[in-house]
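Put briefly, the fold is written as integer tokens. One such record reads:
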Amino acid sequence: MSGRPINGLYVVTAEADGQSGDLVAGVKQAVIGGARLVQYRDKSFDSVRRTRDAFALAKLCRMHEVPFLINDDVELACTVAADGVHLGADDATLQEARSLLGQAAIIGISCYNHFDLARQAEEAGADYVAFGSFFPSSTKPDAVPASLELLRCARESLHIPIVAIGGISPENGGKLIDAGADALAVIDGIFGQPDILAVAQDYARIF
């Protein structure tokens, strides 16, 4: 396990529509506004673009001393020397990721609304677990719903950081922190907004 802090505003990039420079500029504004972790998420099959963007974001995050994670793709994380990966149910196993990235890597696991998955992830050496969706999400409209009671249960039982995701806003995020979330993962709430810097500051203020 990495021992790196997992807390605060955790931004997850939206699917890239424009140039790499636009993506990097947006993430920079989020980091300046208070983001404590950055995850690059791109589900496309454009490997050239994904590698280019990941290298650019890894450089940016190193400059600002913010951990940089890759969604799903362990090999890409290795290629760009990312700080870690976030894995879902259909991705590489935690053991495979740890073997390739090393003990210092941050490895997070999506647990959806299943506490048992979180317990298993902790026992397997995950650095954090993520639950959600807590509120309706434009990014994943069909995501399974998660409850505040799940967060409370996880907070009482787990010893690793807990990330909440799904439709989180500066207005509703405080409820999740109060229930036990260490970090709030946000996609459209940051990158779908006209002033990324200002809204990132709004999120950061609720911690």
